[in-house]
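As a representative case, we now present a protein record of this kind.
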Amino acid sequence: MTKFFIILLLCIQSTAALSNSITQPLVGSHNEWPPYIFADGTGMTTELVSAAFFSQNIAFDIKIAPFSRAMRMLENNEIDLIPALWWTENRAKTILFSQPYFTNELSIISNTKSQLDYQGPHSLESLTISTIRGYGYHEYLQSIDRLTIVPLLNVHSCLEHVKKHRADIALVDKYAAWFEMKNNGYSTELTIWQPALIKHPLHIGISKEHPDAEYIITSFNKGLEQIKRSGEYDEILARYEHLASAQPE
């Protein structure tokens, strides 16, 4: 009888494990965000997230879409996850977040010909700032007195607004800004100010309504630890170092 119950218990555990297995590729969505996510879906974020899931025998695909649309698709259960997401109190009401796998540094960008003297958030009062629509720093920016926020679709548009004096400044991840400036010849026309105005840990995010949300997040966290231990995490970062950390000449 004892042997029977042991076998029954093992069967139940095996069935539970199968019910949590992911047999189809997980689908995420995000806007183009070089060097993290390129137009063809490749990039540092895609590689890190894919590697973490692959170590747990889970496949991952990505669809490129404007960030605001990607968030709507997540809300409507049209995708499984957002692969690059910042935690906010409001988002945490409906979204389950992974452990952070990177930290973004959001820097102020100004036109080189402007008279900006950046000394922290108080020095941005009464200016016009271009930002990416739907990103998780808007609540913070609204706390700066008389700062006018111009939401745009992508990094390129934000920098173009500053270059053409349609906005006084932009708020952009410094690696994304360096990449865009180098590839569009803006290196002498725009200035990246340090220190960063905001630092945001980067996570994957899944709707709490997703039936496998807990399992997917747990699998990702386990996979992230595994690729860090194996050295694969550092290898991926190193491949993007010339894009993501080399300042424009």
Q: What stands out?
A: The radius of gyration is 21 Å. Residues 2-20 form the longest helix (19 residues). The first strand starts at residue 26 and ends at 30.
